[in-house]
Structure of LRRC3 protein:
Amino acid sequence: QAFICLLLCLSWGSSCPPSCQCTERAGAKAVLCSARHLEEIPKDIPQDAVFLKLDANSITRIPSNAFRHLSHLEELDLSRNAIEKIDGAAFKGVAAGLRTLDLSSNRIRSIPKEALLMLNAKLRLANNPWHCECALQEVLWEARLDPDSVQDITCHTAPREEYVGKPLLQVLDAGVNFCSVRQRTTDVAMFITMFGWFAMVIAYVVCYVRHNREDTRKHVEYLKSLPSTQNPAE
């Protein structure tokens, strides 16, 4: 039974998805799934895959734990797809071992920073419709970007029209800090909230004082209207 189980495990671990081609490259397994009209990441990728090419397909999302069982994976090519969403745990389990990750030429507008935590791979992000904001700026600060493609990370949308169509690196080199803009926006919102509470307190105090004055005035008038209890002088 143990022998049969071992055979099944080895067979499953070395099997190849029907839509892909598995081959050896420099003694390591390469899984080639380029241009196979895939709409999602195959579930049966061999566990011993070192190189995985999923480029030129129609994949729209990278879900959490999509590659977690691929502990030997070093190179991952997801370029020229239709990826719009990347989950925060998309590369969980493989981030430490990846050497290159190609996400260029997709439809990515933003990427969660937690998706890139512990990622040591050289990252390609060019030719995506990026929304230039603090989150993307932080990605540039923390990720290992491929220097040959960093100039092609362009602002498709941005908080200010003058940044649209410009390389993000050029905008940042000009002294723009999207994170400080977000901080100022947060500070203004907090100031407005505090001012609103302060105005409410002042209004309450004013109403309270006016109400007390009105009550005092009515009480004094009432006392004046009472008949005098003093005896007339003899």
Notes: DSSP finds four helices and eleven strands in the chain.
